[in-house]
Amino acid sequence: KQEVTQIPAALSVPEGENLVLNCSFTDSAIYNLQWFRQDPGKGLTSLLLIQSSQREQTSGRLNASLDKSSGRSTLYIAASQPGDSATYLCAVRGSTLGRLYFGRGTQLTVWP
Amino acid sequence: EAGVAQSPRYKIIEKRQSVAFWCNPISGHATLYWYQQILGQGPKLLIQFQNNGVVDDSQLPKDRFSAERLKGVDSTLKIQPAKLEDSAVYLCASSLDNQETQYFGPGTRLLVL
Predict the structure, then answer these.
(1) How many angstroms separate the CA atoms of B96 and B99, rounded?
(2) Does A43 touch chain B (CB under 8 A)?
(3) Which of the residues A36, A46, A95, A100 would you substitute to probe the B interface, choosing the one with the greatest number of B C-beta atoms within 10 Å?
(4) Are A4 and A91 in contact (CB under 8 A)?
(5) Confidence bin at A98 (pLDDT 50/70/90)
(6) CB A44, CB A38: distance < 8 Å
(7) Which residues contact A22 (CB under 8 A, 6 or more apart)?
(8) What is the predicted pLDDT for the residue at A106?
(9) What mean pLDDT do residues B11-28 have?
(10) Does A89 reach chain B within 8 Å, measured CB to CB?
(11) pLDDT tens digit sequence for A10-63
């Protein structure tokens, strides 16, 4: 069974810092990996999706990398802002029809 | 484009009572998902529909949970009878197809007393 772990569980940083969130998974036979953002009381918003054949994806100040062989992904957030405060979730899909396996998330707080 | 709609947003019931949640996916999305998210954990898939057929319900507690997707559009998730451990946020998501990005609704927060 696929296990997804996210480190750290919580992170508090001042505005302007560059930061890295980590995600690891136990079964490297994945179809794709997604990073989501979850705001309190709201659903999940997809940030980046990386196919298993890709090494990274970028969107604005966000960059996600994937090392499938080592079972790791990182989400890099440049020049963090208070509006980035949320819980960030990593999820892997094991096959074309497979379910998403989620980590517990990293709760990020960016203070002014 | 309208997003995924869910109702109610909040529900408080006593254990052994019944409850139902409703989801309206994005128009044209063939795949619909129900997730359970317990506080402090990531979402766990309960059931996945492709149009009105079930693709994966291996993690659905079928003795108390049931779900249907009539006409391949709206879906309802029911719990009967509820237990204390069912307290969670129930998220509905949809995607164009099962390989595409999933779009999530705001969720229904259930508290079982």
Answers:
(1) 8
(2) yes
(3) A100
(4) yes
(5) low
(6) yes
(7) A6, A7, A8, A72, A73, A74
(8) 97
(9) 96
(10) yes
(11) 999 999 999 999 999 999 989 899 999 999 878 899 999 999 999 999 999 999
Angle at B31 between CA B29 and CA B37, to 5 degrees: 115
Residue among A43, A49, A102 minimizing CB distance to B107: A43
Q: For residue A89, what are the contacts with CB-CB under 8 A and spacing of at least 6?
A: A6, A35, A36, A37, A38, A44, A102, A103, A105, B42, B43
Q: What's the whole-number mean pLDDT along residues B65-73?
A: 92
Put simply, whether B46 touches A (Cβ < 8 Å) is no
B24 CB-side CA count, 13 A: 7
Dist CA A89 CA A52 (whole Å):
18
Count Cβ–Cβ pairs < 8 Å, chain A vs chain B.
50
